[in-house]
Task: structure prediction
Amino acid sequence: MPTFEQFKMPDAGEGLTEADILTWRVAVGDTVEVNQPLVEVETAKSLVELPCPFDGVVIELLASEGDTVEVGIPIVVIDVDPTGAGPEATPAPESAGATPAPVTAHEHTGHGSAPEPAHAPAAAAPESADSGAVLVGYGVKAGSAHRRERAEGALEPIGGTEGAYPVFAKPPVRKLARDLGIDLSTINPSGPGGLVTREDVEQRAQAGSARTLATYPEDDQPWLESGYSTPDGRATRVPVKSVRKRTAEAMVKSAFTAPHVTVFQTVDVTATMDLVAQLKGDRDFADVRVTPLLIVAKALLLAVRRHPEVNSSWDDASQEIVFKHYINLGIAASTPRGLLVPNIKDAHRLPLRALAQKIGELTADARSGKTSPANLSDGTITITNVGVLGIDTGTPILNPGEAAILAFGAIRQQPWVHEGEIQIRWVTQLALSFDHRLVDGELGARVLADIGRVMNNPAQGLVWA
Amino acid sequence: MSATGPLSDEGLIRLLDRTGARLEDPFFSQYAKDLTDDDLRRFWREMTLTRAFDNEATSLQRQGELGLWVPALGQEAAQIGSGNAVRKPDFVFPSYREHGVALTRGIDLPVILKMFRGIEHGSWVPSEHSFHLYTLVIGAHTLHATGYAMAMDRDGLVASGKPENDGAVICYFGDGATSQGDVNEALIFAAVNNAPVVFFCQNNQFAISEPTTRQSRVPLADRGKGVGIPSVRVDGNDVIASYAVSNWALQYARSGAGPVLVEAFTYRMGAHTTSDDPTRYRTRADEAYWAERDPIARLTTYMENAGILPDEYREEVAQEAKGLGRRTRELVKTWPAPSKTEMFEHVYAEPHATVDAERAWFERYERSFLEAHS
Result:
């Protein structure tokens, strides 16, 4: 009866975790002897010829040329007793696995790894990789560390730090932490097996303190606050946090969850401009600011009243569409803290003057950084007034949790065909982005058209009010 | 070989050229004249066994049995020649590639592999063989050697009036080590203290991948001039010259005349270690040039021509080499992995409370894993 031995991929360097099979120098059926070239492999460091560790006959090649094989995985099976009767009860009966003949697992106890339990399954994952050895100068590959499983509560600290688990971190990382005055045990490790990485420490350092800026003293560049200079002094890196971080997250979330569609309309708003001028002279409106934004807000509220389905949101978790019977009208505002979208609660209930007053308060609060968290939550639909920046229009991204957002462009005097003649009129562009999951193109178009109609002829508002 | 600089053959002592012809040196020939045919056969045998063992160890590393191996291929003549000039009162401080010297000091070669299997830090009693443990830190042991030599001097083991009782230290290091601070400090200490130490630098031309030309503008032996240590360059691939020069140097040191620096100019025919790929920093042509200067081939040619290497002897040694390889292979696999708590032993000579506490903690830590313990 033959006796089969496996040859496992060795670590041919210091701390290699894998190697590529380049060329087999033997074939199945070949008679081989100890130290005869078996296979040529390429490691991260060099081309290496692996000599055969046994005398015998090649039974099976377990890896093909071109394969990448982890250290510890068997690559060839050799019958070391092809002619002999062989002992009937060859060792390791529990390691029979898929191979018909008894397989003696050829253990590699060298290179500092502990003797492995004899009852390991024959074709199991790499067993000798638990040394955690690292290829000199290469570092350990993320996730390549095979850690032993720990018994729950098996090692209780018995008072003081003496009994506590050590924090796992490489010596240079420990030094970095020490230099920066950071306690490693307070860091949430992100590395494999609970290893505290250099990035973890650096992130903590940046969160904790601001470093010197690469700016000139007379510069007024508040966005560089809490940033730090790059080594060459030519750039400042500012950790992404607070409003900017939330903005980024919200934008990404919105852009990649809600399929956006934007519709555009160019509108003659001369009548709106006349109305604004008129209201400015009205005594009732003496203590509030009247702007075209007020009229566009009112127009949107009227359009929503006619098409309440647009005032809704998509609840992905419960697979429901939430139609809201209130309008919390968001106005996108550029603030010292970044982009915020405070909203006016129950805007649909407000008469025009109260709406003007609320818009005024909202903008004042936003500019002075006093916007309350309550005003930032539960918006239902939003206006972004890109026109104040002289921009014609844009394709706005939805405020998460809302189904529509209106971009209001700059109002310019332009040549316009009015009552059959080219006249100079006040013209603007409106753009409405909506969540196409719950707002169809027709609905979106109707909403925008209604807004346009009110802007074009504010008297229409009387009809719809 | 260049005409000038660290790779030139300027001042190289040579008693056997690469064609196997004996040469005479007006000074050093006398230090090899006591060599008998038996001695030469012993040199040949030791060089052959060293190489066979070396190749077996490389194979074992490639088969996963050793974590690392450091081949000495090509340096057998420098090692066997110098090692045979050592006698009992002397003391040897090797680096980590001195397998040939170890053989001359009576070390059973396979035990060297315990260190490279990662199970022991050193596997012989240095005093029994006058052969210190391998030192992995480059050049650190040159200071130990110098201190040991100074102590031998203070113990009256040098220039005692009975030359046969006198001893000296021989310390082995490589070309790369000469760029280390420790080696320069050792040379200075040895010089000013007139320490009986022979600094034996095997210039194998590479500090891992860094060629000697990146370490020095002059032959490495010239470093001795700066501190006033007499220095000799010898052809390290010539076992007879290596013996003669070492023989002289050790006698010089034993006589109380002070330190000597020997540069044995040789070539590392293999990789720095099994983790290294020399094809990345040197050419096949270079390797072919030095293959023609193989130290064993040179001695073989000479002895064949002189009729002192009979076929029976060659066959005998070939069998011995084969047996050594087989025995090494079998022995390596019988060595059990050491217990993990062994690392706490030998930290202090005597019991130590801190070490005991750390051992206790570690044992509990090990027990916290689910896997079976063996």
Residues 168-237 of chain A form a domain with the Dihydrolipoamide Transferase fold (CATH 4.10.320.10). The first helix of chain A runs from residue 171 to 180.
